Prior knowledge:
- The complex is a heterotrimer of chains A (480), B (348) and C (319).
- Chain A is an alpha+beta fold.
- Chain A has helices at residues 2-14, 16-38, 43-48, 176-190, 196-199, 203-207, 266-302, 304-317, 322-333, 337-363, 367-374, 379-418, 426-435, 444-472, 474-479, and strands spanning 78-82, 87-91, 94-105, 114-118, 121-123, 129-135, 141-148, 160-162, 168-171, 209-210, 221-222, 225-234, 241-242, 245-249.
- Chain A has 15 helices and 14 strands.
- Chain A has a five-stranded antiparallel β-sheet with strand order 2-3-12-6-7.
- Chain B is elongated.
- Chain C folds into two domains: 4-91 and 171-272, Rossmann fold (3-Layer(aba) Sandwich), CATH 3.40.50; 100-169, no CATH class.
- Chain C has ten helices and twelve strands.
- Chain C has helices at 46-53, 80-87, 109-119, 124-137, 154-166, 184-201, 212-218, 236-241, 246-253, 315-318, and strands spanning 4-15, 18-30, 35-39, 61-70, 73-74, 92-95, 172-176, 204-209, 221-226, 229-235, 301-302, 308-309.
- In chain C, the strands form two sheets. Chain C has an eight-stranded mixed β-sheet with strand order 6-7-8-3-9-10-12-11, sandwiched between helices. Chain C has a four-stranded antiparallel β-sheet with strand order 2-1-4-5, covered by helices on one side.
- The chains are: A alpha+beta (480), B mainly alpha (348), C alpha/beta (319).
- Chains A and B meet through helix 8, helix 9, helix 12, helix 14 and helix 15 of A and helix 1, helix 6, helix 7, helix 8 and helix 10 of B.
- Bound molecules: adenosine-5'-diphosphate and magnesium ion.
Amino acid sequence: xxxxxxxxxxxxxxxxxxxxxxxxxxxxxxxxxxxxxxxxxxxxxxxxxxxxxxxxxxxxxxxxxxxxxxxxxxxxxxxxxxxxxxxxxxxxxxxxxxxxxxxxxxxxxxxxxxxxxxxxxxxxxxxxxxxxxxxxxxxxxxxxxxxxxxxxxxxxxxxxxxxxxxxxxxxxxxxxxxxxxxxxxxxxxxxxxxxxxxxxxxxxxxxxxxxxxxxxxxxxxxxxxxxxxxxxxxxxxxxxxxxxxxxxxxxxxxxxxxxxxxxxxxxxxxxxxxxxxxxxxxxxxxxxxxxxxxxxxxxxxxxxxxxxxxxxxxxxxxxxxxxxxxxxxxxxxxxxxxxxxxxxxxxxxxxxxxxxxxxxxxxxxxxxxxxxxxxxxxxxxxxxxxxxxxxxxxxxxxxxxxxxxxxxxxxxxxxxxxxxxxxxxxxxxxxxxxxxxxxxxxxxxxxxxxxxxxxxxxxxxxxxxxxxxxxxxxxxxxxx
Amino acid sequence: xxxxxxxxxxxxxxxxxxxxxxxxxxxxxxxxxxxxxxxxxxxxxxxxxxxxxxxxxxxxxxxxxxxxxxxxxxxxxxxxxxxxxxxxxxxxxxxxxxxxxxxxxxxxxxxxxxxxxxxxxxxxxxxxxxxxxxxxxxxxxxxxxxxxxxxxxxxxxxxxxxxxxxxxxxxxxxxxxxxxxxxxxxxxxxxxxxxxxxxxxxxxxxxxxxxxxxxxxxxxxxxxxxxxxxxxxxxxxxxxxxxxxxxxxxxxxxxxxxxxxxxxxxxxxxxxxxxxxxxxxxxxxxxxxxxxxxxxxxxxxxxxxxxxxxxxxxxxxxxxxxxxxxxxxxxxxxxxxxxxxxxxxxxx
Amino acid sequence: xxxxxxxxxxxxxxxxxxxxxxxxxxxxxxxxxxxxxxxxxxxxxxxxxxxxxxxxxxxxxxxxxxxxxxxxxxxxxxxxxxxxxxxxxxxxxxxxxxxxxxxxxxxxxxxxxxxxxxxxxxxxxxxxxxxxxxxxxxxxxxxxxxxxxxxxxxxxxxxxxxxxxxxxxxxxxxxxxxxxxxxxxxxxxxxxxxxxxxxxxxxxxxxxxxxxxxxxxxxxxxxxxxxxxxxxxxxxxxxxxxxxxxxxxxxxxxxxxxxxxxxxxxxxxxxxxxxxxxxxxxxxxxxxxxxxxxxxxxxxxxxxxxxxxxxxxxxxxxx
Lengths: 480, 348, 319
Ligand SMILES: Nc1ncnc2c1ncn2[C@@H]1O[C@H](COP(=O)(O)OP(=O)(O)O)[C@@H](O)[C@H]1O
Ligand SMILES: [Mg+2]
């Protein structure tokens, strides 16, 4: 038996769809293994559904590579994280810590936002003082932001720790202090009074724009070149310390797959979808076929009341429309992925049982089975050693074919908003795209890739099944 | 006689499926406490009305409370809330079976009724319209192309058809719908993105009919695209299998011209399994309608299902689960009858 | 002049494993009123030959050649449409191997019998009457007409198929293993029916079987076919009593006889692969008399007026 199955495998690999399917399947598997190895277990709840994680990402922007399609250089997303000061010296009773960094700005447009984050600060006396300033390519200097770390509350014990669990994040474009600072900076250059009203909503443009005396603030050009950023901490105790700062130049393109409306990196979500889809498909398929096969063999071989009971049950179950009932159950019992899998199995096995039974009925009077029975083999031995091997290739094909069905069913449910929120899937990505209207405003990078991946993954398994089919069905083989 | 028995047997099985769905639904509702909550809500609603109408007559608040709590007990007994949920099971199943589907909280029919049965019945024709037109178009294309391919074994198109079928199987209608909307409704602005009528709907029956047609183009095309591939492949395979039968060669030996051999000895013989596939395809697309109608905002039962999920309308969801099962079961029964008509071998 | 002549019929099939040389030059004649038997093991090309005579070729035929004559007319080169309308069923009809699958399962058997008549514009009533007469001729009742195939037993189906083949009064009827799928008792009934028809209707037939004993029951002359070649032809008596070809001899020796003293023996070895066939005699690997000329192409030698054999053992008689 095993050698003939090996021959079947060889024949399978010689078909076009078999080869293609196998190659793509190995790719799927590799990506899934990579994701399982690198993603934390609670990815869904702790990372994906946590808006804090995605705060510093641009919202609903396309992937980076669209820059290759035209001459316009969109602003790329840049993040500067500094944990060690570039210089530190004693100043009075405390310290002066300087974090400096620079960037070469070459995009044709302004950044979509600027954000500045101060990480954990600990101090022993008076709260430290932080200043963010910038030297522009035209050698003008702007003091952008100042922050006095929140002072001690009554009865608080030393050292005082601030911004530990929620770092202090400032969206520079929307902070009134920044507006005041920028207005003052403009007054120096334009040599006239500038009100904060005038700079409102234009912080990014002014900070990175070329400004000369007499310039209108309406249509500023990007000032390309080297910018130098400086963050200065002044402390009042030498023991004071900080975990550093973060500065973000918000892009209008992001990563390989762009972002969604809350700034989530779609690449991360899409990758996570691989093991999930594969898991749903394979677990459902394996369990469905196992139960279906056992049911069919027992029903066909044992016969009698067992047979009647199994057949009535399968008849009824296989006449139930799956999707409406699935929706009903998930709606009432709650969106849980394992529940989806269980329901798919419960309504999936009967179809197979009916087919396997009819195959077993034909086989049970066959020579090898008769011979085994004459030799006194037990029922279970006949079923597992004589009947099963003969239908195994067919069962395998059925199993492969069940996979895409399960993946598509889960995707459909997720699309209706009944996806398990703790486990993001491609269907859920699509659903959030659909309900947030991404479809209608042309955010293609949000709705195309998850759908394509669903189709591709399902298709890989259909190919595999198609490759298996002529191998086990000689009638088709002659046709093909 | 046996024919009647066969059909009766199938009918019974299908009815069993219907009952199984209902019992499962009711058990799930009961065991999760949903049904208690539902009935309690009804009781409180009635009591609130009672309190308002009695407030004028009763000066004494204590007396009022007494009357109300008496009435509450009555109602609780009436709805069976004084017994565990499983005692109410038979009554509930019976109610749904007789289409006594209750009332919706917030959803209303186009005519303003809050009775679930009105809501559902009003949407039913729209769903049937969408699905049958898609099925009819798909089967015409599938039959035509599939038969054509079967006569060209080994050609590029014929060998490619299995890939087409794989693609078509793997392509979810809802995603295809999203793509169609992006391309035809928003990119090229050729067709409406959803709904069934323009706002405001045009005057006159002909104009209205054309308006519906206009709105149906995208959803119907989508449904056809996602199912026509496997249709073509199935027809091709069944026709090919049949054309290898001996009686086909016999017919040729009898000097029957090729087109009659095809119609009378191949397609006619392959018809029962093809019709099976057709009806199962239609029945299967019923579930898919929930997704397709959602995408295209088509005011059918599927879209109602989606709206009910969004607004958490349990009674509508239960009613629709039942209705979908009912239509599915009816479709399968029609299939059984057709099969008997088409294939004398089961006509015992 | 013979009623039917087949000359050098060759049929090769295209398969994924290579080209199958199913028939490699088969020639024979059938006289009017004569039953010509074609005997050979399974896979020797009998069914291919029968289909080839009706020019019904499977899709994967790679090569088909030879000549066919009926009543002196060359029918091999008739345009397909003319062949279909003039020859098929009208002049040459056939009973296919396996009556089980020869009938369309969703069509009433009567309509399947009248179908070729209706194609020829015979009025419905006449066609119906003729079909009923045919059913009665083969020993069935006329009300079988409205039945479906699955309602009939195997023997009844075989009779229907024979009635169907006779409905246009053909000049020649090809019977491809007409009894092989039936029980022995039914087999005898069908053979008796065929013998009666042959006698009553003066039928000319080509009777194909793997069972030489069955052939001897009805045939006037026999042809023995091996690996797509006609290795021996001759009158029934010649072939049975004086078999010339070693294969015919082996075949006869392997057939159990009712009154024979010798036990049947098996033919050692297996038939050659029809793919990549060597030149020369196809039987030489299994032949006890094989000698050195056997790997050269064998001509047909006439050993008597009526008997011809394709074997180098008889080369000197001629040369
Ligand atoms: N359509 C076909 N394609 C390929 N090989 C065929 C086909 N039909 C018959 N053969 C092969 O040709 C040989 C002769 O077959 P057949 O004519 O059916 O023999 P017989 O009727 O004597 O059993 C066999 O080896 C068979 O496998
Ligand atoms: Mg044969």
